[in-house]
Amino acid sequence: MTVLNKVNVEAQAIEAKKASKKLMVLSKVEKNDALLHLADVLEREYETILAANEKDLAAGREKGFTDAFMDRLSLSKERIADFAQGLRDVAKLDDPTGQVLSDWTLENGLQVEKVTVPLGVIGMIYEARPNVTVDATGLALKSGNAIVLKGGSNAINSNAAIVEVMHKGLEETKIPKEAVQFIASTDRAATNELFTMKEHIDVLIPRGGGKLIQAVVENATVPVLETGVGNCHIYIDKAADVEKAINILVNAKTDRPAVCNAAETLIVHKEWLAANRDALVSALQENDIQVHGDDHVLELIPGSVAAGEEDWSNEYLSTDIAVKSVDDVVEAIEHIEMYGTKHSEAIITEDGEAAQKFLALVDAAALYHNASTRFTDGGALGFGAEIGISTQKLHARGPMGLPALTTVKFLMKGTGQIR
User: Fold this and answer.
1) Strand ranges (E), 60-120
2) Which of 40, 182, 250, 294 has the least C-beta neighbours within 10 A?
3) Torsion region of 136: left, alpha or beta (phi above 0 gives left; psi -120 to 50 gives alpha)
4) With pLDDT > 70 as the criterion, what percentage of the chain qualifies?
C-alpha cells in the first residue's frame, strides 16, 4: 500500500458531510448489520492489516521507539479479532439516536418533543493506536455520524490498511463508504486544515498525548470534545487496608502502564508508610516500579530517586511512578488540585469520613474509593467501546460512549398555531 501525502482534506470532509445525510436516516438494523459485516471482514483480511503494520513497526524500531510505544503500535491476529469483537459489542448496544428524552404539550396545543440526533461529522485526531481507527469508526457509525480520521504518522500504514479493509466491507452494506474518511498524509498542514472546517466538520475529538490535545484546543475553530491526559493519583490514606492498597496500586500502575487511566502518582499518608514500608517496598521491587519520591520517601524507599517539579505532573506511561508523602487527606487533595488533570483519582481507606471528603472535593471525571483507576473505560463501565475520556465539563465528561456522540433536536407538532 502506498500512502500519499498530497490529499484534499476539504474534499474528503465534503464527502463525509454528504454521506452523513444518508447515514442518519438508516434504521438500527441496517447500521447493526453493517457493523457485524465489518467485523467479519476485518477478521478475514487480517493479513493485509498485519503486512501494513509491519512497515510501521520496522520504522519504529529504526527510530528507537520505546517498548511502551511499540506495544501501542503493534497489531496481531488476536488484536484484530478483538477489534472485530468490539464492533460486535457496539452492535448489541441500544441505538442512541431517535430517543424521546422528554415531551409535553403547551396550553395552545403545540406538542413538543426533545429527541436525540447524530452530531453529524466527527473529526478524530489521534496518535499511535490503530485500535482507535476501528473503535471510533464503530461508535460513529452506530450513532449515525460520519467520521474523518487523522491518525498519527507513526501508524499511518496500519490505519490506511484498516480503513481500506473497512471500505471494502462497507461497499456490501447500506452505509456509504464515504462516511468513513481517512486523511492519508503525514503532512501537519493536513491536520491544521481539519482544525478549521466549521462548515463541514461538526466536532473534533483529539485523543493522545498532552501536546496533541493542547494543539487541537488552542488552534481549532471547530468545536472540540476534549479528551484528557491522565496524570492519575492513588492516595493511600492512614486507614487503608494494606493488602487492598497494594493490590490496587500494583494493578493501577502495571496492568497497562501506557494507557491514560494508569496511575502515575502515589500519594501516601506518612503514618501508613512508616507502618507498612516493607510490604510496599516489596511490591514495588517485585513489579519493577521505579520510584521518584520526595525527601521523606527517599529516606524510606530504597532505590528511589529524587522527584523534581516535573515528576508531579508527568504522565510517565511506563512503570515509573512519583511518590508524595502527606500528613492527611486534605494535603492529598491539595496536591491533586495542583497537579491533577481531572481524569481519574482514587482513595484507599477504611475511613468513611475521609473517603467522603475525597469524593466530594476532588475535581475529576472519575473518582474511586477502594478501587483501581483502570476502570475509567467505556467497556469496563458497560458503555461498550469508547471514543475517549473527556476531562471537560460541557456536553460530556468521563468515558464517552455512544450517547456522547449525539445532540438533541426539539420537534414541534402543531395544528396551525401562531404567535
Assistant:
1) 100-105, 111-118
2) 40
3) alpha
4) 98
Quote the CA–CA distance of 257 and 398 in Å, as a whole number: 19
Please give the full DSSP string across 8-29, using - where no structure is assigned. -HHHHHHHHHHHHHHHTTS-HH
Q: Position of cell 484528557?
A: 228
Cβ 13 vs Cβ 197: under 8 Å: yes
Residue 125 Rama label (left phi>0; alpha psi -120 to 50; beta): beta
CA distance 5 to 190: 9
Cell 512497515 sits on residue? 55
Residue with cell 481517512: 182
Q: Does residue 5 surpass a pLDDT of 70?
A: no
Predicted confidence (pLDDT) per residue in 145-193, tens digit:
999 999 999 999 999 999 999 999 999 999 999 999 999 988 888 888 9
Q: What is the pLDDT of residues 84-131, one digit of tens each?
A: 999 999 999 999 999 999 999 999 999 999 999 999 999 999 987 899
Task: State the first-to-last Cα distance of the chain, in angstroms, to the nearest integer.
Answer: 61
> Which residue in 29, 138, 121 sits closest to 407, CA to CA?
121
For the stretch 316-332, what's the b/e string if a residue is b when 16 or more beta carbons lie within 10 angstroms of its beta carbon? bbbbbbbbbbbeebebb
Bridge partners, residue 225, by sequence: none
> C-alpha cell of 411?
420537534
Is residue 192 helix, strand or coil?
helix
Write out the three cell numbers for 180: 468513513
Contact predicate 373/366, CB 8 Å? yes
Cell of 211: 501536546
If you search the block for the grid coordinates 415531551, which residue do you land on? 103
